[in-house]
Design a protein that fits this description.
- The protein has 14 helices and 13 strands.
- By secondary structure, the chain is α/β, with parallel strands linked by helices.
- The strands form three sheets. Strands 6, 7, 8, 9, 10, 11, 12 and 13 form an eight-stranded mixed β-sheet that branches.
- Strand 2 and strand 3 form a beta hairpin.
- The protein is globular.
- The structure holds S-adenosylmethionine.
- The site of S-adenosylmethionine has 21 residues, from helix 5 and strand 7.
């Protein structure tokens, strides 16, 4: 997936589009196939149907197998443009990127946080701020092979690899662009115990019982089928091996001073994520999800972040740069969709930042689950 932040130079973007025209034309000109595939897309996936309705000119479809429709969305996801063209270009001869394969297993292309530079910085701030709280008890023995799933830009990878320098990590993500950044981060930090690979959780290119441990952080919340993901991961885990899953739960956020607008702004993020097929309240579901997927000895440990002026690093790293930045990131979508008006949204964000002042406080709970195969 190729993503461009609004800051990207217009000349570069126009050049990309010009290059891509030649690749997309043959598919677009296949009008009858395209409309048949679009019809199938609509019936196969309600989210695609909604997207087709909202962005009729921004959907390209093709079907190159009898029974499946592939859809590429070229949608503007405010505030960042989510653009699949580049990936499409690379893969036009084979299949479109797996994001585009319709099915309940796949993360929506409407990934609520996007893949912008700003979001990469937020993920790094989040991981760094929460290192002690979330990772202190995750240590892998020398010689063990660990699969990190949905590594993103490598924010957790460098912590894992640093804490367990003699374990070997295979870190995968569906986004080639995030992987490139993760690779850069790991190289910069001098880690030689991590390799990266582009792969889809639902189509893992590994033998059964291949890994000693699996680590998943902030990924299940974005998947329409987290139970299916956990089952897919169970297959590649050795008998006796462990899975560690860390997720948040936006319903666990409370703060002082309380604010109706701030609570509504958080609810917008919850609603938008649900609309995109995810569940930002997933933390509270980890126990049943793991147990039902077939893991044994499941244990969930809630990890509360509490920030007040006596903990300035948490106020800055969590209240401002992790949580409020995350909510703020969906502002345009929330307003565009009429979930909140612009003034109420601004008041909500202002009130969230207000909790980072000297007399403010902020609480949020993460859930860290472990289970065995
Ligand atoms: C919120 S980011 C979390 C990244 C990282 N784990 C962290 O905590 O900083 C979610 C990541 O999951 C990846 N992802 C989503 N669906 C995936 C799938 N089906 N297979 C592999 N990775 C996926 C996304 O590309 C994204 O990088």
């Amino acid at each position: 997936m190729v993503l461009h932040s609004p800051a990207r130079r217009p000349a570069a973007r126009n050049r990309d589009r010009a290059r891509l025209t030649s690749h997309t034309a043959p598919i677009a000109s296949c009008a009858s196939s395209a409309s048949a595939a679009a019809a199938r897309a609509r019936s196969a996936c309600p989210r695609a149907a909604a997207a087709v309705r909202q962005h009729p000119t921004r959907i390209m479809t093709r079907h190159d197998r009898k029974d499946r429709a592939y859809v590429t969305l070229v949608a503007t996801q405010n505030p960042y443009e989510v653009d699949l063209w580049g990936e499409h270009e690379k893969r036009a001869a084979s299949t479109l990127p797996p994001h585009c394969l319709l099915g309940e297993n796949l993360m929506s292309v409407d990934y609520v946080h996007g893949y912008s530079t700003k979001e990469s910085a937020r993920l790094t701030d989040q991981a760094t701020t929460l290192t002690e709280l979330l990772h202190a008890d995750t240590l892998y023995p020398p010689g063990s092979l660990v699969l990190e799933v949905g590594c993103g830009v490598g924010a957790q990878t460098v912590i894992l690899a640093g804490n367990s320098p003699r374990a070997a990590f295979k870190s995968i993500d569906i986004s080639a662009e995030s992987l490139a950044e993760a690779r850069r981060q790991a190289q910069e930090a001098g880690f030689t115990n991590v390799t990266f690979q582009q792969a889809d959780i639902f189509d893992l290119p590994f033998l059964s019982a291949h890994f000693d441990h699996v680590f998943v952080c902030f990924v299940l919340e974005h998947l329409p089928n987290p139970a299916g993901a956990l089952q897919a991961l169970l297959r590649v885990l050795k008998p006796g091996g462990s899975i560690t899953v860390i997720e948040g739960d936006h319903g666990s956020a409370y703060f002082h001073p309380d604010s109706h607008h701030a609570r509504r702004a958080i609810q917008c993020l919850i609603d938008l994520q649900r609309q995109a097929g995810g569940d930002s309240l997933i933390g509270r579901r980890l126990y049943p999800l793991l147990a039902q997927a077939g893991y044994r000895d499941v244990y969930v440990s809630p990890r509360m972040v509490y920030a007040d002026a006596g903990r300035p690093a948490l106020v800055d790293g969590f209240t401002r740069k992790t949580f409020t930045a995350m909510v703020e990131g969906v502002g345009e979508q929330a307003v565009d969709q009429g979930l909140m008006d612009e003034a109420s949204w601004a008041a909500g964000i202002r009130d969230l930042y207000r909790t980072a002042k000297d007399d403010g406080t902020f609480c949020y709970t993460f859930f860290k689950a472990q289970g065995l195969r």
